[in-house]
Amino acid sequence: MPNSKSSKAKRGQHVASSLPSGTSHKQKPAAPINEEDLEPLSPAQTRELERRVRDSRDPIRYMLVSEFSRRFILYYNVSDDVYAMNNPAGGTLFKRLKTAESVKKQLGKGTSIVKYTTKGGKLKRLSPYRGMWASKPRKDAFVWTHEGPDQVEIVDYH
User: Which of 8, 54, 96, 110 could be bridged to 13 by S-S, CB 3.0 to 4.6 A?
Assistant: First the structure.
């Protein structure tokens, strides 16, 4: 019976590395940079670099949520295409609002975009809680008069 690495890996057994214990792959040190060989950045490259630095320092982020109540909120995780229940750390933070809006469009109704900040290394919600029904205008099924309800509309909710 052959005892190769591949057969051990298939059976779920531990396969030892080919490197001796205590060693790792090391990168060669980079060659020193001669500043005379560097070309100056163009104004467009400088503007783009400054924009990226400003963008990286901006603590505002956006998350896709489905809010049923204050105690039952689902946070969308793009990588796994799942919702994390009541755990904002399980959701995906978007840097750009346009990106969050395009993903929201793919998810359909029932999902909203919530604004967060990551200032101080903590995730803090900036947008107020809206709930599932707060964003929809309510249509009364009747008119209340001094005599009581009038013009009652029978609606099938099932």
Answer: 8
